[in-house]
């Protein structure tokens, strides 16, 4: 794919040194008697951020509050340092949004629609035409740019929706279930495009209940459950434990006995052993036991757990009404 226009193509800034793209304090919203967000406190850093949770966890409600589509019943929320909904128009000029449901005008061509979206973003007509052409090329729709959107496949429509979200070169894009309805090939194409946003210097909040998609694309994860933050942090911190997974070439029982004699908790795990200490990293102990026993190893490393493991361990997955 070609390089992106204007600011697109810049170098993304480290998550750790940038101010938060989103900050919320005591945020509450309810649909009648159904509470979607309940006293939510949250800071979302820059970068590619996963927003995960079961249906009804509050993900879509949060996105709509960030866009000023909804107003909070209580609490405060800022987007790119600007309070919402007080500065909605200013924020929307700097934010792109890819909604989950159908939203494309079926009788318009992809080119006309993108030009219109770019003009809404403040670009003059000539610049809007060039930007639309460039962005359609980035998402792989250049050859289909003069076809009506109503004739697009689901995968092409999803890419067109992403294109309209970034055509005005936003600082932040909000992507609501971007892989919904896609076949495996289309899903991989979409995830590749999302990953490229970081290279373009565009921050993204990717809302999804498909946890492997978040593991594939994001560096930071916010887990919602029941309208509250269940966990929030770097993906590597959430998916790494202080346990060591060890596969030995032979004498597994002998190694396990030696580790247990030294105070470790050893659990069979597939073809290997899962080794844990009550206090600290067991890596040093494992190395010492292997040296003493002379047993060879096939592999050894920290145990990685999935986001699903983390979510379920935290009590997630009990979402109620769709929110």
Features:
alpha/beta, single chain, disordered N terminus, disordered C terminus, four-stranded antiparallel beta sheet, 323 residues, Rossmann fold, six-stranded mixed beta sheet, elongated, 2 domains
Description:
The chain is elongated. The protein has eleven helices and 14 strands. The chain has two domains: 15-237, 3-Layer(aba) Sandwich (Rossmann fold); 240-304, UreE, C-terminal domain (Alpha-Beta Plaits, 2-Layer Sandwich), CATH 3.30.70. The protein has 323 residues and is α/β, with parallel strands linked by helices. Helices cover 33% and strands 28% of the residues. The strands form three sheets. A six-stranded mixed sheet has the order 6-7-8-3-9-10, sandwiched between helices. A four-stranded antiparallel sheet has the order 2-1-4-5. Helix 3 packs across helix 4 (125-138), helix 4 crosses helix 5 and helix 9 packs across helix 10.
CATH topology annotation of the largest domain: Rossmann fold
CATH architecture of the largest domain: 3-Layer(aba) Sandwich
SSE string: EEEHEEHEHHHEHEHEEHEHEEHEH
Instruction: Give the class-level CATH name of the largest domain.
Output: Alpha Beta
How large is the share of residues in beta strands? 25-35%
What's the helix count?
11
Low-confidence stretches: 1-6, 9-16, 318-322
Structural class: alpha/beta
Our measurement of the CA-to-CA distance between the termini, rounded to an integer number of angstroms, reads 36 Å
How many structural domains? 2
Oligomer: single chain
How are the strands of the biggest sheet laid out side by side? 6-7-8-3-9-10
Based on CA inertia axes, which overall geometry fits?
Answer: elongated
Assign the CATH superfamily of the largest domain.
Answer: P-loop containing nucleotide triphosphate hydrolases
Helix content: 25-40%
Number of strands: 14
How many strands, what sense, and barrel or not for the largest sheet? Answer: 6 strands, mixed
- Please state the CA-atom Rg, rounded to the nearest Å: 23 Å
């Amino acid at each position: 794919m070609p390089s992106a226009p204007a600011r697109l193509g810049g170098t993304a800034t480290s998550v750790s040194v940038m101010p938060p793209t989103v900050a919320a304090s005591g945020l509450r919203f309810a649909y009648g008697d159904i509470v979607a967000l309940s006293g939510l406190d949250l800071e979302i850093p820059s970068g590619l951020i996963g927003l995960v949770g079961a249906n009804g966890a509050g993900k879509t409600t949060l996105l709509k509050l960030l866009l000023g589509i909804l107003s909070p019943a209580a609490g405060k929320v800022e987007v790119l340092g600007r309070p919402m909904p007080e500065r909605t128009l200013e924020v929307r000029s700097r934010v792109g949004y890819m909604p989950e449901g159908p939203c494309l005008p079926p009788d318009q061509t992809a080119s006309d629609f993108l030009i219109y979206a770019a003009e809404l973003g403040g670009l003059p007509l000539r610049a809007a035409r060039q930007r639309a052409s460039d962005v359609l090329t980035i998402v792989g729709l250049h050859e289909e740019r003069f076809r009506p959107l109503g004739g697009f496949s689901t995968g092409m429509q999803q890419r067109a929706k992403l294109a309209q979200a970034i055509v005005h070169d936003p600082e932040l894009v909000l992507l609501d279930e971007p892989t919904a309805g896609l076949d495996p090939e289309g899903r991989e194409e979409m995830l590749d495009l999302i990953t490229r946003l970081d290279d373009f210097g565009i921050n993204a909040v990717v809302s999804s209940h498909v946890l492997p998609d978040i593991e594939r694309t994001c560096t930071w994860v916010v887990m919602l459950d029941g309208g509250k933050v269940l966990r929030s942090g770097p993906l590597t911190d959430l998916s790494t434990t202080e346990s060591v997974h060890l596969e030995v070439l032979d004498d597994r029982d002998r190694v396990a006995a030696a580790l247990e004699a030294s105070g470790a908790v050893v659990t069979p795990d597939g073809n290997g052993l899962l080794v844990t200490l009550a206090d600290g990293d067991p890596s040093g102990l494992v190395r010492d036991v292997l040296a003493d026993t002379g047993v060879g190893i096939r592999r050894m490393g920290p145990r990685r757990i999935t986001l699903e493991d983390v979510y379920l361990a935290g009590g997630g997955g009990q979402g109620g009404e769709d929110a």
